[in-house]
Amino acid sequence: PPAHSHSDWIGPPDKHSNLRPVIFYVPPEESALERRLREARQEAQASNQRFWARHNRAFRQEKEEFIYSRLKAKGLEMKDESGQKATLNAEEMADFYKDFLSKNLKKHLQYNRDWYKRNFRITFLMGQVALVRALRWLRWRKKKVEQ
């Protein structure tokens, strides 16, 4: 982002996780509480990035293995006579998706628990930052009226 920017910047989707990375704006006079909030948001982003990159890599690999094994069982190759990549029908792929989700249920449940914890913490910190800013604004306004 340009040096004069006062906003977070969101990039294009990551090719592994499909998540859009965020470059967080750091104000020049960031308070300790604001820094804790930004760092919590950065940690949440990094954690999500790691989880979804691993998950998507495993998904693609297992999907390819599933397709290969099903095609091989049918006596087919990965490419048909015209050179096109061979595919399975929707019912066969539904079997893969169901199995993949079942095998990864515990990982998804743990991810969701962690996600909720992180977001609760971020929301709590956002509330604290908003309260501090409101009180600072009220003190400034009161001081301005008294002058």
UniProtKB/TrEMBL annotation:
It is found in: Mitochondrion inner membrane. GO terms for cellular component: mitochondrial inner membrane. This is APOP1 protein. The keyword Hydrolase does not apply. GO terms for biological process: intrinsic apoptotic signaling pathway. Its main location: mitochondrion. It is a peripheral membrane protein. Keywords: Membrane, Mitochondrion, Mitochondrion inner membrane, Transit peptide. The keyword Membrane applies. Belongs to the COA8 family.
